[in-house]
Amino acid sequence: MWKKINIGLWVVFAGLTLTIWYLFAPPRSLEKVKTVDQAMRYLGFAENHAERNAGKDEKAALKCYYQTCGELRVATGERILAFAKNDEEINEGYIWIVDGLARLVRYEDQLDPSESDKGRSRQKLDALIDELEQSGKHPKIVNTQRTRQLFRRVGDARNEMTRERFDEFLQEAKTRVNFETDFNDPAAPVLFLLEITISKPLSETEPELCRETAKNLIDFVRSDQCKFDEEKKKKTIKDIEGIARRHPAATLELYGRTIDGKEFQWEEYSGKYVLVEFTASWCGPCRMELPNLLEAYNKYHEKGLEVVAVGVSDENANLLKMAKEDKLPWAVISEELTEKAGLPKQGEFFGINGVPTILLINRDGKLIDSELRGEDLQKRLAELLDEPRP
Description:
- By secondary structure, this protein is α/β, with parallel strands linked by helices.
- It has helices spanning 2-24, 36-54, 58-83, 87-110, 120-135, 139-157, 163-176, 188-196, 202-205, 209-222, 230-244, 284-300, 316-326, 335-340, 346-349, 374-385; strands at residues 257-258, 273-279, 305-311, 331-334, 357-361, 367-370.
- It is 60% helix and 7% strand.
- Strands 1-4-3-2-5-6 form a six-stranded mixed beta sheet.
- Strand 2 (273-279), helix 12 and strand 3 (305-311) form a beta-alpha-beta unit.
- Helix 6 packs antiparallel against helix 7 (163-176).
- The chain starts with a helix and ends in a 5-residue tail after the last helix.
């Protein structure tokens, strides 16, 4: 009798397992996808499979993230449009197509694709946004991409930026903060323009532009032209003030608690060049930049170069693990422990909106360069430290 009961239970269990698998297992091909939920499960399965195949090789991982996953997202979005029965599903389809094309644009523009591919996805994306804008539908998608196009135009003009051109971009950025977009921070357009003022060449040709723009933006945010609520206005003004603390030739002073709980001693770095990297254990680009920082440190440490890392939006346990696994020879400041000590978070204090952000401080404690990475970092350090010190 018990044997029959056990067999019956196993049959029921097997039946339930198969039913659950049938209902929730991701479809293995797009042709079998018939709902948005199935599309999301298919996309998750396909991207995870692609990431496993890419392995730990950094170049392969980047190609997977931007090219392979970009193509998967476009195909998934197109499949959703094929079976969409209402405006919500149609919007979902366009969201994934646009996101996928945006990844492909990044791949074609920056990650060394063949010349035959260069610009192809950008043309498709721009044409799609024009079409959606003309339809009068999907304004959030359109506004998000129009803001990204502003970022792109600013970036393209960056090396030959004039004051007049900057003012035109700033005015456009102000109009965009009131549009609904997918950006986590609706103030992103104006904060991006303020960041441009602390980067070359504007930081050299217009050294006062950062502080002038910061004042301009604070007045704008406080005015009725900016539709933020009062809490958001206060947060944006705080971000503006933080970025302005990194104005050209600003004197920077770090503080806080290191990952081992000790008080960070900035005075120990007096008279030295210091690279300050705002980083996080979860940040892929930060991991890619690490070999470059280690090379710089090993080459120039005896000539007076120090490195300090500041963990942003990260738990201390994760930073400890990162420092141990990577065998970091420099101090790592923990925002978590710094905040527990009653001090402001470094990332917020200096208006850091993305990682990695790398600052170069000279022997007098003044900020002389920002956004240094890769070959640009090595060239700048060579200029400063390869020559004999007088």
